[in-house]
């Protein structure tokens, strides 16, 4: 049997972890190219070219598939750029899918074929690729999509399981966590063709969908305690790596910056609307909580083959995954969507706002028999008693 050379990406990851590379495996790029004639003929399937949109928004899509499988085409340019990540003007030499942190969210249905053209413009300085947790084989596509500046690659995979899945850049070794930390992560959601269901097989729908990608940044400080602003990716690498290895982030944010989803950029809904929240974290765990609301239905692992949990106060996002939650708003007003490690939410930035429009308050759910004011003379001030 012909033994092909070891996967370069797998070896790089192994060496970056300080362990010996695995025994020789088939070079999947060579194997795929040599057997490309065996690829299925999909000419009979309809094709749809999707225009991606910047998070927290998501491109138009059907919640219930109105037809059979199709080939869904996405084009994702890679953008290396400087971004501001807080109100102090701290900058990050970012690497992004499509120019945003996180990268755009893609939505398809089970059984669809996903065709992604990844473009690395010549203006960039580094090689990149894409590893999709929803894809099968070739390191999630990472082994066959490594492209240098000035190159592009098109890969296709079958969406054969439902759920929300993280994707990220994975060029190998130390470069993988650095590229992810610098912004190269996103989510793809594979919906069941018949739509979402609750534990009793009743259909579930949503009026709006918001995608929150949580990122932890590791920006060093100078001797005076100020964050260091770098002029290039190469200049930033040594200091960033030292901070990353300490595992103590300088910032934990939604959608690329402190306050990115607050103020004029807050999410919005109308009272009575059902909102889907897709929350990804490519590196660390998170604990989302909607202050003033709940998770009516939550797929904590993000996988729709599993029945959703109901009525959660806080749910868990495992590092390297995306969770999905539905909530129908019952009261107007301001809601805060936070990482309920509130140190990270308040001190490091993992907080977002959602403004719910409405002019009717449900006093049965909450009311105010006595407004804030001076303590009344007849108020009982005794403390709880011991048993």
- Tell me how many strands there are: 21
Helix-strand pattern: HHEEEEEEEEHEEEEHEEEEEEEEHE
CATH class of the largest domain: Mainly Beta
Strand order of the largest sheet: 13-12-15-19-17-18
Largest sheet: 6 strands, mixed
Q: Uncertain runs with pLDDT below 50, 5 residues or more?
A: 1-25
Helix content, binned percent: 10-25%
Question: Helix- and strand-based class?
Answer: mainly beta
Over all CA atoms, what is the radius of gyration?
Answer: 23 Å
The CA-CA distance between the termini, in Å, is 77 Å
Named at the architecture level, the CATH assignment of the largest domain is Sandwich
CATH level-four homologous superfamily name of the largest domain: Cupredoxins -  blue copper proteins
Question: Which band does the percent of strand residues land in?
Answer: 25-35%
Which descriptor suits the 3D outline? globular
The figure for the number of domains is 3
Question: If helices are DSSP runs of H or I spanning 4 or more residues, what is the number of helices?
Answer: 5
